[in-house]
Amino acid sequence: GDGPKRIDLEQMREKNLLHDRVEFLGPVMHHEVHNGHIFLNTSLTEAFCIGMVEAACCGLLVVSTKVGGVPEVLPRHMIIFSKPEEEVFITISSGITTDLVNAVSKAIKMIRLKEVVPTKFHDEIKEMYSWCNVAERTEKVYDKIWKLKTPPLMERLRRYYGCGIWAGKIFCVVMAVDYLFWRFLEWLFPADEIDIAPAFPYQKYRK
């Protein structure tokens, strides 16, 4: 693609004289993505990398730093993890190499030895991330949250107070103001006068 980091990458290629080994393709058509072999994600923070799911769905083996929610995105046979570069350096006889380099080398070796079956990746991803599956899991999360009991006010204040010497006090003040505002709204618009939403007809859509 043509992202904001492309200029930095091109400068790195110039600096290390890698013109004959590194080529920037720019935007790639959807039907050409599966011509690749490895998808590399080097994020230092990541909640959910949708790009990894799309790459694996196209049959690419994923190499990624093990950060945030990345370990929960794909099964282990579709992804190889490395530690974030800022954390680990491995010294070898020829110099210094990062853990990410070792992970990419492992991925290349697996592909050359045909230990990866990319044709099966699409079917697996289709089952894992079908809309029905995602909707069902989302429903379970909301249902679990809905059933949680709200802790007493003093318990919540105690938790906020423990967030730091100054931050804790500020959080408690904000929460107290928010609580008083909620009580005012409760008096102004009583809950028993608000229409209750009808129950969702689950059985109708499960047939």
What does this structure look like?
The structure is a single chain. With about 210 residues, this protein is mainly α. It has 2 domains: about 90 residues, Rossmann fold (3-Layer(aba) Sandwich), CATH 3.40.50.2000; about 60 residues, no CATH class. The strands form 2 sheets. The protein has a 3-stranded parallel beta sheet with strand order 1-2-3, sandwiched between helices. Strands 4-5 form a two-stranded antiparallel sheet. Helix 6 runs antiparallel to helix 7. It is extended, with a radius of gyration of 25 Å. It starts with 5 loop residues before the first helix and ends with a helix.
State the domain count: 2
Percent helix among the residues?
A: 40-55%
User: Mean pLDDT, as a whole number?
Assistant: 86
Kindly report the CATH topology of the largest domain: Rossmann fold
Write the CATH homologous superfamily of the largest domain.
Glycogen Phosphorylase B
GO biological process, one term: GPI anchor biosynthetic process
Transmembrane segments: 160-182
Protein name: 15628_t:CDS:1
GO molecular function: phosphatidylinositol N-acetylglucosaminyltransferase activity
